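retry 2 of 3: previous attempt timed out while embedding 2-acetamido-2-deoxy-beta-D-glucopyranose. Reduced batch size to 1 and resubmitted. Inputs unchanged:
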Amino acid sequence: MACFLASAFLFILQTFAAPPQASISLNGINLNDEDVTLSPPPGTSKRPPHSIIIGVRKGGTRALLEMLDIHPEVAAAATEVHFFDWDENYAKGLEWYRELMPYSYPHQITVEKTPGYFTSTLAPERICAMNSSIKLLLILRDPAERVVSDYTQVYFNRLENHKPVQAIENLLVRNGALNTGYKAIQRSLYDIHMRNWLRHFPLEQIHIVDGDLLIHDPLPELQKVERFLNLPPRIVASNFYFNQTKGFYCIRSDGRERCLHESKGRPHPVVNSTVLQQLRSYLQEHNRTFFRLVKRTFNWQ
Ligand SMILES: *[C@@H]1O[C@H](CO)[C@@H](O)[C@H](O)[C@H]1NC(C)=O
Ligand SMILES: *[C@@H]1O[C@H](CO)[C@@H](O)[C@H](O)[C@H]1NC(C)=O
Ligand SMILES: *[C@@H]1O[C@H](CO)[C@@H](O)[C@H](O)[C@H]1NC(C)=O
Ligand SMILES: *[C@@H]1O[C@H](CO)[C@@H](O)[C@H](O)[C@H]1NC(C)=O
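retry 2 succeeded.
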C-alpha cells in the first residue's frame, strides 16, 4: 500500500527535467563529461537499475561495485545522487534518474550504488515504488569497526576543508556516557535500518554481502552475488591479486589492473579501549536483533 502511494506520487512528478550533466561510471562503455560529444556505443541504452547497492556507508560499497563490474554482464555506476532521499532530486522524476545510469547492452544488468540509502527513511518506499522486484545488495561489516571508519572519513574530510577536528573519544562520549546520538553510531544500528527496508521488501530480495569476508577473500562473496543476481558465473580467482603494500586485493580484468582509491585504506585512530568496549556492548544488543531479522549471523568480533 505504502509502495502504491509513492508510485502515484512519482507518476505525478514525471517531468522532463533537463538530464544531469553526466554520470560517474566505472563501466568501460559509459560516457563521462569529457566525452559528451561521443555518441553512445551502438546497441546500448540507458535503463533503470536492476540492482542497487544500498549501503552501508564505509561497509565496502566501492569495493563491491568495482568487483562486480568485472562481470561482463554488469554495467555499474556509482551514482550517489541520493535520488530517492532528496526531494529536489526526486521531483525531477524517473526519467532524470535513468539518465544517470550507464549505457548498457541488452544482455547486461545495471547496478548502481548509493551507500546512504541503507540509513535513509525515504529510500525503501520510493525504491519499492520504482520497481518492487528490484534486487538490493547490502554490504555490512562489524558495526563498531564501521563507526571508527566513518569517523576517520569525516576526520580527513574536515582536515582537507580546514575545519576543526575532534578526537573520536570526544564524539563517542558525552557526560561520561556513550553518546548514542552520534551519527556514526546511529548509522551502525543495522537492526533499526533493516526493519525499515523489510517493511517494503521481502528478505529474499535483499542480499547481504559480508564486507569483512569480501576484503579477505573476495571470490566466494562475489559468487554468491552472481547467484543472487542470476548471472552466469564469470568472476574467477585470477581477477584478483593481493597487493602487499596496500594490504588488500586489487582487480585485474580486461587487461587492466586497478586498486581502490588511496583514501579507502586510511589508518584508523587507536581508540581508548574503555570507550571502545562501551561502544561494543551497546552495539551487541542491536546486532543480536539484526541477526534475528535477517535469519543469519555474522562473525563480528
Ligand atoms: C525490476 O527489477 C527486476 C530485478 O532486477 C528486473 O528484472 C526488472 O527488469 C526491473 N523492472 C524494471 C521496469 O526496470
Ligand atoms: C600496490 O600498491 C602500491 C601502493 O598503493 C602501488 O604503488 C602499486 O602500484 C600497487 N601494485 C600493484 C601491482 O598493483
Ligand atoms: C579511557 O577513557 C576513560 C574514561 O572514559 C579514562 O578513565 C581512561 O583513563 C582512558 N584511558 C586512556 C588510556 O586514555
Ligand atoms: C555484535 O557487535 C559487537 C560490536 O561490534 C561485537 O562486540 C559483538 O561481539 C557482536 N556480537 C556477535 C554475537 O557477533
